[in-house]
Specification:
By secondary structure, the protein is of the alpha/beta class. The protein is built from 10 helices and 11 strands. The longest helix is centred in the N-terminal third of the chain and has 24 residues.
Amino acid sequence: MNQRLPIDVLRALRSIVELGSVTRAAESLNLSQSAVSWKIKRLEKQLGRDLIRREGQRLVATNEGAELLIHARRILNSHDEALALFAPSTLEGVVRLGVTEQASLPQLAPILARFARQHGNVDVQVVVEQSQALRQSLVQGDLDLALHQDFSHALSAEDHLLWSERLHWCVPAGWQYTPDATVSLVTYGPGCFYGSLAQDRLQAAGIRCKVAVQCPYSDGVLSAISAGLGIGIVAGGNIDLRVETGRAFQRSMPLPEVANVLRYSQRKHDPILQALQQMLAQALTRTPEVAGVQG
């Protein structure tokens, strides 16, 4: 068996798993889809193992592929750090990045770490806030780039769409609406546009409501709903088994999709900002894929 693990093949494997598709991996590597697919097939044949499998709309690593990726990331990090010694990035400065809780730090951390290795003289400062606060900070110049969330119809022409998801009415287990009762709401706080949407929908349906709990984090919102302190609107990606979907409300008061997008501040032409935006967009953009390894 050929014992060599070529750098370009390991990079293709990492890109596919991080981006979820051959299509996006090929774009990030400036290669054709067929070239990326061939690299993975050649590696699987060399090792005698399946390394990639499809899970829903994304390509993910098999168990053996995940084991290989642990070593691949170490190899690629060391390789890129060695190259950086002899071809260092010329970018330097500070980027202030705002993100919502929906863009989890465990997901962002490896992307930002890779950016830091490639651009050692760039300081990326991260702030986690609600979308409305992030947008305001962009306008005020307190942030340079924000990953925020808004209704799909309200997006700016300059927003780069990463992914969309459905909103759901979430209720405690076994909860049912009692006619003429006042519904208690759990929201993410005063700036929560989910909370405003919930109040608008309920009032339009002639249902009285009041805000009972305000918490800026999904775990607290779900805990409050689960404990029976109220109901609330939660994005599909954050729902867990602690709560149920309020099917009656889903049917009578359907909710729109929300979009998770990247938006620049006035510094949009800054090379540092463009480099970070490109890396985040490549890693986080989710697109529907066709079946098969060409996805």
